[in-house]
Design a protein that fits this description.
Number of helices: 3
Strand content: 15-25%
Structural class: alpha+beta
Shape: extended
Radius of gyration: 22 Å
Order of helices and strands: EEEEEEHHH
Number of domains: 2
Length: 145
């Protein structure tokens, strides 16, 4: 993580920029730079009320708002999933429930009843997992762990 000295960034208040380390990428993508940056006041608070100093995600040399970075990440994931789907290599068994729910509208089912059934099964699996976690936590608390 990289920290700069506190400076006046034009608003009359001191702030310093704190940069994350580069996000890890495989070697063949290592020439790309993805980092998060925030502005911090001397009291330790993160600046969120000044658009010019609000948290950003840098992709190469482009500064993106956190929201725009998420939109871009989703669009990239959607495009990759579509490319996989076109060539038949989308492995549904490797996807999380959330990812499955996101691509569910794009999958080719024989009818909407099957789509609704699959969606219900995914939700049922999530509910079952949540219930199991609640019971595990409750039991751990009973045992004092």
């Amino acid at each position: 993580m990289s920290e700069a000295q506190f400076e006046d960034h034009g608003d009359g208040l001191l702030a310093r920029l704190i940069w994350s380390n580069d996000m890890p990428l495989p070697d063949h993508l290592a020439d790309r730079n993805i980092q998060a940056v925030i502005a911090q006041r001397p009291d330790g608070t993160v600046v969120t009320d000044d658009p010019s100093l609000s948290p950003r995600v840098y992709l190469y040399d482009s500064a993106l708002t956190v929201t725009d970075a998420r939109v871009l990440a989703k669009a990239l994931t959607d495009a990759a999933n579509l490319a996989d789907q076109w060539c038949g290599s989308l492995d549904l068994t490797e996807m999380t429930d959330r990812e499955l729910l996101e691509i569910l509208p794009d999958l080719d089912f024989k009818d909407n009843d099957m789509r609704a059934t699959v969606q219900s099964l995914i939700h049922l699996g999530e509910a079952t997992r949540n219930l199991a976690q609640i019971h595990i936590i409750a039991r751990a608390m009973e045992l004092g762990r």
